[in-house]
Amino acid sequence: MIGFMGGTFDPVHFGHLRVALEVREFLGLDRLRLLPCREPAHRSVPGAPAQARRMMLESAVRNEPSLLVDPRELERSGPSYMYDTLLSIQAEFPRQSLVLVLGMDAFAGLERWHRWNELPGLTHFLVLHRPGYEPQVPTGLTRSGLFRIGNYKDVFNRHAFGSVVFHPVSQFEISSTGIREILARSGNPRFLLPESVLEMIREQGLYTGNP
Ligand code: ATP
Ligand code: MG
After folding, report:
1. Where does residue 37 rank: exposed (0-12), middle (13-18), buried (19+ CB within 10 A)?
2. Residue 105 in contact with residue 135, Cβ under 8 Å?
3. Which of the listed residues 4, 5, 13, 16 should we mutate to test ligand 1's pocket, taking the one with most ligand atoms within 8 A of CB?
4. What are 38-62's pLDDT values in tens digits?
5. What are the start-end ranges of the E strands in the chain?
6. Are 193 and 12 in contact (CB under 8 A)?
7. How many beta carbons lie within 10 A of that of residue 175, not counting itself?
8. What is the DSSP letter of 133?
9. Is the CB of 177 under 6 A from ligand 1?
């Protein structure tokens, strides 16, 4: 089983990192892959360039061998569609089932994703509780009949793809948007994100404009 969590990581924070670790343990994986996107397909342009977001992420996980930065989306041009990413991971690991890890806020918008109704034919979904978002399956997804809602993670083993499991990770009310807002008003976001990431932000003068 290959577990991976996509994101803009603009910048990476302790919410991402702590839940990633908990998910890796929950799924019993050796490693969880973190995939920074190059160009988000359904949101505004990131506050920091892709390479800076990648370097911040790499510095954040440097001492944690169970979290791996997977740069495949940065190596493709154009919008970073999860559909293309899934094909790429599948091609690299043809005999493994895939588990896409995402927060409830992201899952709520899945119907806006490129070729969303083909995604359950490629991967399972592990949906993380997130403060402010009710854990539920969006009605369009239910109506499509393409997603199998499971109560236990064993559905990931019984089927090759198409299962959705919710997971109540530790709840952190931390977001990259919140951190960008703090930086834009010259506030101090310390203790919301790794010290090394904050140092890079300060050295490179990132996030000084509009959040
Ligand atoms: P932004 O505010 O810019 O959207 P973010 O904090 O939501 O940033 P993303 O890079 O958008 O971070 O998130 C990547 C993935 O991590 C998404 O699936 C998101 O739902 C999940 N995630 C981010 N923060 C948390 C958190 N505190 N708890 C649980 N999941 C989270
Ligand atoms: Mg987000």
Report:
1. buried
2. no
3. 16
4. 988 877 889 999 999 999 999 999 9
5. 2-7, 32-36, 67-69, 98-103, 124-128, 148-149, 163-167
6. yes
7. 18
8. B
9. yes
pTM over 0.90: yes
7 close to ligand 1 (CB < 6 Angstrom): yes
Q: Which domains does the chain have, with CATH numbers?
A: 2-204 (3.40.50.620)
Instruction: Give the Å distance between the CA of 7 and the centre of ligand 2.
Output: 7
State in Å: Cα 80 to ligand 1 middle. Answer: 16
In tens, the pLDDT along 93-122 reads 999 999 999 999 999 999 999 999 999 999
For residue 146, the CA-to-ligand 2 centroid distance in Å is 24
